[in-house]
Amino acid sequence: MFKNWWDLRGPAQILHQLSPLRITFLESFFSIEGRKILDVGCGGGIFSEALWRRGARVSGTDVCKDSLKQARFHAENTKANIIYESPEYFQGRPNYFEVLLFMEVLEHVDHLYDTVAYWFPLLIPGGYIMGSTVNRTTKSYFKSIIAAEYILQWIPSGTHNWHHFIQPKELKTLFKRLGCFGWVEQGYRYSLFSTEKWTFCAATDTNFFFSIRKL
């Protein structure tokens, strides 16, 4: 993925900017402190460390070995007590985690249902599945691909495939098939006129957070 996840001005800079908003979204549902959280698609550990600093018991996983290597290296330097392992490592832990996170992950997978179903058994009954992704709309094509990748060059070109973007109703239906309840979606956007780079908004036609719980 990214060669240097921890470069604040590099290709992962937006993920650094998003951490405070992500924290706020999670804390609107529960206290993070002490929660057993699995950060699926953790990349270089940017959000995993933000959660750890809030007192969570964090594990992170990613299919990219180089990303996990960067995450472990940074955690060693910051003394962050986080378990970073490949996906296979966690499969022997049914009903273990209280929260499964998919932050900017699901729009990058080829088989959406199979990906979510793979991790679902690890979540305790009543646990939360939370994350953020990109809606599949005309607006998201221009904002998330044309503008972000080619005009503003916030992220490398080719990062996104519009056909992999997910409409909220599709995600809600998928989770209900797995046996979940309590769907919540929350839009967010980049703000030119706020001291915070990213803010919540009513519209979900581009970026949105989601939360749902396992029965």
Please, could you describe this protein's structure?
The structure is a single chain. It is built from six helices and eight strands. With 215 residues, the chain is α/β, with parallel strands linked by helices. It has a single domain, classed as 3-Layer(aba) Sandwich (Rossmann fold), CATH 3.40.50. An eight-stranded mixed β-sheet has the order 3-2-1-4-5-8-6-7. Helix 3 (65-78) links the parallel strand 2 (57-61) and strand 3. Helix 1 (13-27) packs across helix 2. The protein starts with 12 loop residues before the first helix and ends with a strand. The mean pLDDT is 96. Keywords: Methyltransferase, S-adenosyl-L-methionine, Transferase, Ubiquinone, Ubiquinone biosynthesis. It holds the Pfam family Methyltransf_23. GO terms for molecular function: 3-demethylubiquinol 3-O-methyltransferase activity; polyprenyldihydroxybenzoate methyltransferase activity. InterPro entries: SAM-dependent_MTases_sf (IPR029063), UbiG_MeTrfase (IPR010233). One of its GO terms (biological process) is methylation.
Stated plainly, the CATH topology is called: Rossmann fold
Q: Alpha-carbon distance between the termini?
A: 34 Å
Secondary structure category: alpha/beta
Give the biggest sheet.
8 strands, mixed
Low-confidence stretches: none
Write the layout of secondary structure elements.
Blueprint: H1 13-27, E1 36-40, H2 46-53, E2 57-61, H3 65-78, E3 83-85, E4 97-103, H4 112-119, E5 123-134, H5 138-151, H6 168-178, E6 180-190, E7 198-201, E8 207-214
Helix pairs in contact: 1-2
